[in-house]
Write a structure and sequence with these properties.
This protein has 619 residues and is an alpha/beta fold. It has three domains: 273 residues, TIM Barrel; 213 residues, TIM Barrel; 90 residues, Sulfite Reductase Hemoprotein, domain 1. The protein has an eight-stranded parallel β-barrel with strand order 3-4-5-6-7-8-9-10, surrounded by eight helices. An eight-stranded parallel β-barrel has the order 11-14-15-16-17-18-19-20. A five-stranded mixed beta sheet has the order 21-22-23-24-25. Strand 16, helix 12 and strand 17 form a beta-alpha-beta unit. The two termini are 50 Å apart. The structure holds iron/sulfur cluster. Iron/sulfur cluster binds next to helix 18.
């Protein structure tokens, strides 16, 4: 187990960095002026195991009230550090630094004006002038932090970069890194070391790329600040957990990350056990110069594993989204067609006539000993053969292609590589005995080093895992590999006799979170905080109910108009709280309806989607 080496940062009584466990944190969603509500919620987070509690401070008066919250928590015996979350308001940051143990500032809006998202061009002088102003303002803030022993988080979000940064780097991982480095260089020059950094996005690929790039850039410039990881607007339920596991888990497995927050649109204390389990199931392995793998699979297939069933009957095919193509059609009979969520491949150990009905687009994987019989039922049968058996086979396997399963580096022998090199019909199934991220990565590196052009399917056996543990573990171990486009297919062997489609659903969620397939409407929603201007959880539920069938769309539900529009990233539509029971609606980044009463907002969004040509009726 090895994490990237970092400085130790002092946050009140808490120590953070590579010498300490990965710290777990969450954020209040109560009104910062409501001391009692904040204290109650902070206690729930702390009792659940939160080691740091973040509170928003939109203005100076909220920053002043942090003092009351801090004092009341201490009076009740809770000394867990507090972190103030500041946007747009250096005065509030300075005030907060006097009262709490840590202050988070956003480089996109600490010294720079709110981004206009217009294409602006800066002369070198203008650019340098803004940098000087930034340095001056930030230095003044650091002086106050130093005087009070307050730590700082430089927290950059994709979607809230300044015009200046976007003019040179665009809204990209490079832009996020440069925006952060501008502030870190001030910290280094001022010898201010109690600094933690975050680079967040609702897009796992952007977030993973940005953090990796920042780690390299810091290495080059001799900086060792700890990293805070999070996927913004991850949403709620299974989607929020899988998306967080793909983004945060990938980086933890690569040894990056010293504190995490899983942002769910749920009660904040519910984030803590999810974060704890995520930390526990990752196995950090930091490598300074890992080989660069060129991913090439941008639309991976799914292998649905139904080997727990003794027969492939109608219930099983229906659960996999295969349905009779045309009822009462004498020509097509009871042939099946694939629905939008159906897998491209199935793995079964049971052979029977139902296999004849499967659509011609589906491959049927069977143990290699059964492949000849399987061809009687379905000519698209594909043999799965363990690597040791494969090396012993004298006759070529029948069928268009076959799968060779490799369970670890000890099976990756020169003899196997040589045989694969001569076999143009073999694809690989990498199924390490311990399905951990680095085991897959090592096997993928070996395949790349051998320059084999074979398709690579990544298989994981879930053992007895169920529910949230299953989702977190498999998404954190496999998700990053799909973020990097390294898998031709995903195959989850989940032994659930009750629900044959568990593995299929999780496969879809992982591929969607990795940004390589789209199976359902992508909802992003912020977790809410003291700025939230309506009941976020029930709004998310209503929006999901109304628009959950629009598979091609990404819809954001955000709590406030201050940060919501910037942070909803590349969503197609936005539903954003505007206060006083009103909602603003966005088409992309453009605000197109202002102050719609909440009771009418769902219908207004439906009309807007229809006007833009994106509406489809529910089937
Ligand atoms: S977008 Fe949501 S989490 Fe972010 S500041 Fe607004 S209400 Fe808070």
């Amino acid at each position: 187990m090895k994490r990237r080496l970092t400085n130790q940062v002092r946050i009140g009584e808490l120590r953070m960095g590579s010498d300490y466990p990965v710290r777990i944190q969450s954020m209040l969603n109560t009104d910062t002026m409501d001391t009692e509500a904040c204290v109650e919620q902070a206690i729930r987070i702390i009792e659940a195991g939160g080691e740091l509690v973040r509170v928003t401070a939109p203005g100076v008066k909220e920053a002043q009230n942090l003092k009351n919250i801090r004092e009341e928590l201490c009076r009740r015996g809770y000394t867990t550090p507090l972190s103030a979350d500041i946007h747009f308001n250096p005065a509030a940051a300075i005030e907060a630094a006097c009262h709490v143990e840590k202050v988070r500032i956003n480089p996109g809006n600490f010294a720079d004006k709110r981004a206009t998202f217009k294409e602006l061009s800066y002369t070198d002088e203008e650019y340098a002038g803004e940098l000087r102003a930034l340095r001056e303002k930030f230095k003044a803030f650091l002086d106050v932090c130093r005087a009070h022993g307050t730590a700082v988080r430089v927290g950059t979000n994709h979607g809230s970069l300044s015009d200046r940064i976007m003019s040179r780097y665009g809204n990209t991982p490079e832009g996020m890194v440069e925006a952060t480095m501008e502030y870190l260089r001030v910290c280094r020059d001022e010898a201010f070391d109690d600094v933690v950094i975050s680079l967040k996005s609702s897009d796992c690929r952007v977030m993973v790329e940005a953090v990796r790039l920042l780690a390299r850039r810091m290495e080059e410039e001799g900086m060792r600040y700890p990293l805070h990881l999070g996927v913004t607007e991850a949403g709620e339920g299974e989607d929020g957990r899988v998306r967080s596991a793909v983004g945060i888990g990938t980086l933890l497995n690569e040894g990056l990350g010293d504190t995490i927050r899983v942002s769910l649109t749920e009660e904040p204390e519910r984030e803590i056990p999810v974060a704890r389990e995520l930390v526990e199931c990752c196995e950090p392995c930091y490598r300074e110069n890992p080989p660069v793998l060129e991913g090439r699979w941008s639309r991976p297939v799914i292998v649905a594993d139904i080997s727990s069933r003794d027969c492939v009957d109608e219930d099983v095919t229906a659960a996999l989204d295969f349905h009779v193509a045309a009822e009462d059609d004498p020509v097509r009979g009871d042939l099946l067609e694939a629905g939008p969520s159906a897998p491209e491949m199935i793995y079964t150990e049971a052979l029977g006539p139902e296999l004849t009905k499967l659509p011609e687009t589906v491959w049927v994987v069977v143990p290699y000993g059964n492949v000849d019989l399987a061809h009687v039922y379905n000519r698209r049968a594909v043999a799965l053969v363990p690597s040791a058996e494969y090396l012993r086979l004298r006759e070529p396997l029948t069928g268009d292609w076959h799968l060779v399963e490799v369970r670890g580096m000890d099976e990756w022998t020169p003899a196997l590589v040589e045989r694969l090199r001569r076999d143009g019909n073999a694809a690989l199934v990498l199924n390490p005995v311990r399905p951990v991220y680095m085991a897959y990565r090592q096997l993928l590196e070996a395949v790349a080093a051998a320059a084999l052009p074979a398709r690579v399917i990544l298989r994981a056996e879930a053992g007895g895992l169920r529910g949230e543990s299953l989702s977190l573990r498999l998404a954190s171990q496999l998700g990053g590999l799909f973020v990097d486009r390294l898998g031709y297919g995903i195959w989850l062997s989940v032994d659930d006799r009750e629900d044959v489609a568990v593995g299929l659903r999780l496969s879809r969620d992982i591929l969607q979170a990795a940004g390589v397939r789209r199976y359902k409407t992508e909802f992003v929603s912020c977790p809410g905080c003291g700025r939230t201007l309506y009941d976020l959880q029930s709004s998310v539920a209503r929006v999901k109910e109304a628009f959950g069938h629009l598979r091609r769309l990404k819809i954001a539900v955000m709590g406030c108009v201050v940060n919501g529009p910037g942070e909803m990233g590349d969503a197609d539509y936005g539903y954003v709280g505007a206060g006083n029971g009103k909602v603003n609606l966005f088409r992309g980044r453009r605000m197109v309806r202002v102050g719609v009463p909440e009771g009418e907002a769902i219908e207004a969004l439906r009309r807007l989607i229809a006007e833009c040509g994106d509406w489809e009726d529910k089937r």
